[in-house]
Amino acid sequence: MAALGQSAFLPFCMNRAVLKGVTREEIGEALAHVAFYVGWGNAIQAAGVVTQFFEARQA
User: Fold this and answer.
1) Average pLDDT of the segment spanning 12-31
2) Which of 31, 32, 38, 40 is most buried, by CB atoms within 10 Å?
3) How far apart are CA 40 and CA 33, in angstroms?
4) What counts of helices (H) and strands (E) characterise the chain?
């Protein structure tokens, strides 16, 4: 989703990934790949959504 610039669906996908055991660090590594392969703009947009997702989980 992040690679396509469709970050509205990211919280749903990340929630499923976290429930299946994917860590915050692994999601960060995936964003690094997004940045290098499809562009910084998509990665920065997705990073904001990821940050909000994990902040909401901590609350």
Assistant:
1) 93
2) 31
3) 10
4) 3, 0
Read off the tokens for 28: 């960060």
Residues in Cβ contact with 55 at an 8 Å cutoff, skipping those fewer than 6 apart: none
27-52 residues labelled b (16+ CB within 10 A) or e (exposed) = beebbeebbeeeeeebbebbbebbee
Distance CA 8, CA 13 (A): 10
Say what the pLDDT of residue 4 is: 66
Q: Residue 7 CB: number of other CB atoms within 10 A?
A: 17
**What's the pTM?**
0.78
Which tokens in the block code for residue 22?
């994917």
Q: What is the DSSP letter of 53?
A: H
